[in-house]
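Quick question: what would this complex look like in 3D?
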Amino acid sequence: MRADHIRIYKSVHTWTGIVSGMALFIAFYAGALTVFKEPIERWASPPAPAPAQQVPLDQVPQLIARTIGDHPAVARGFTIHVRENEGIPARMAWDVRDPGAGDHDESSKRHFAATLDASGAASVGEVHPSRLGAFIDVLHRVVGLPFDNDPGRWFMGVVSALYAVALISGVVVLLPSLVKDFFALRVGRNLKRMWLDAHNVVGIVSLPFHIVMALSAVVFAFHDQIYDLQDRLVHEGKWSSAFQRPQTSAAPPPPPRDVGTMLPPAELLARTREIAPGLAPTMLQYQQVAGPRAVVRVWGKDTSAISPRAMGGFVALDPYSGKVLDSDYLPGRQNVPNLFISSFFALHMASFGNAAVQWMYFVLGLAGAWLFYSGNLLWIESRRKSARNAGANPVQRLDTRLMASATVGICLGSVCGISLMLVAAKWLHGRVGDLTGCLQLVYYGMFFAGVAWAFMRGAARAGIHLLWTAAVVTAAIPLTSAIGWLVPQTGAWAHGSAATLGVDAVAAALAACFAWMARATARRARTGRPDSVWAIEAARQPAPAPGQALSLDPHAR
Amino acid sequence: MKHARPRPIRPDWIAKTLAGLVLGLTLALAASGILSVLTADVPLAVRGQLAMWIVPPIWLFTLGLVYFFESGLRAWLWLGGFNIVACGAWWALRAAAI
């Protein structure tokens, strides 16, 4: 490889990285948390008002028949939950979609649940399950934008494409010196060299993970457009016609079937166990049960196989006869082409293997966030003006000062915002009308406050302040649970399950990390080299006498 | 014949980037057409998904590697040539399949 190529690819890496880096930081930090979306939602779900409310599984046929008798529209689609945990409001639940919302829009749905009351009649009510995990997922999917709509996803797709090019160019730049530099972490006086070595090691070690993420994220953003192009060029229009709804015929619709004659869930589950012994069922998703094409998808997880979707896989049965309609999405039973496609989803969403894989993805996600943060730091460091002689600190370039502020404000602002949102989920519950809307306000309020603070006070000071803020609001997550456990009158609560205690434990560990980083950053600002954007009072004082500089600034001591 | 000193690589940012974006996409679509012909025995619902998944890797790797060309013009000529070869192969396979 020629030096010209390396130089050109260095520019490609620098500019694709700097443009996409901060958006990717949010996507990776929120994405690492999304791996544990279910525990976070369970953590944030208020305790059920009456614990004995869950209808036992053998009374579900009654529950379905009475609910559909009162509300025939429910026959279009509903879910019977097999498991019981903090995040599941009732045995039977369904969503009502806003007719104006898009195909992929999850946030505009209203949720309903049904139980049997003491007299055996169906009692139906709207429920408000925690949307906290879902909103963190939205932040992950559209890199911090508030709306999971088409323009948001296209923006994410462009960021992901830049990320893919940044990965390729980064490897090209590193290749000639890979053997020499790989695992060479030169800790020492040359801090930039050490950060660069660490950036390279993390990047190369997690390269397969990053390639999978970049390519699949581009697919998730642009699949509709690619399908559209291919329908015209490759499939000759057969693709779109295959997925169009069947034309409504002139014949009158058949009379609705008697849903009371469906097989009971216990029998459907037994049937599933015969087909897929390794599948641990989570829920039964019924569709069009009163029509001629009634189907029930038995969803479940199988830790010994690749799951086609984030929530596992399913086998589709006829709810009246128990006949298998479709096993293309059954983990471990897929044919090779389907398994191929499922593995792309599974590799992005960590929906294979057991908890160890999820923890690995959590760590890789956080390492990815650090990779983008360190990339920005290296960009700033490469443009630093060094002091030529003792005492005269040069004014650092405006672009590096602004980039330092943006990096600190956006990255740490989003970290603080997500932690504060978790805390607010418990304290605001029952005190505000629209909890989901308020939590989004809390996130963006904290995020923009962090960004504004970083630009007002400069990166050196704001970095310390925002890291301490992150430590405090993240420590407040387990503290809130502790208060809820000790003083339930406050309205806060604590669950005792391992999954929700895990959320508290991880938050405590992260808070300790943020506090350690805050101390290290403060030490660097005071005692590190003064000719840097990270030194306090370095940028504004052209040539201060040492004593003066210290006395002017209380933070400098 | 060997040059005494190799000609410098011209960055040609706009020309190369456009070549990667446009011709990379057409190359990826042609490749997805070839894959679709080769997997004709797989049902359309699955074949279509496989064909869609192959587009971003080919497109983005073309875009990522396009800066190796000596100039923007060469990038357009080479990638245009690859496109013609790929479309020709696609057309020939389709003709052979019918």
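Answer marked as accepted. The two ends of chain A are 50 Å apart (CA to CA).
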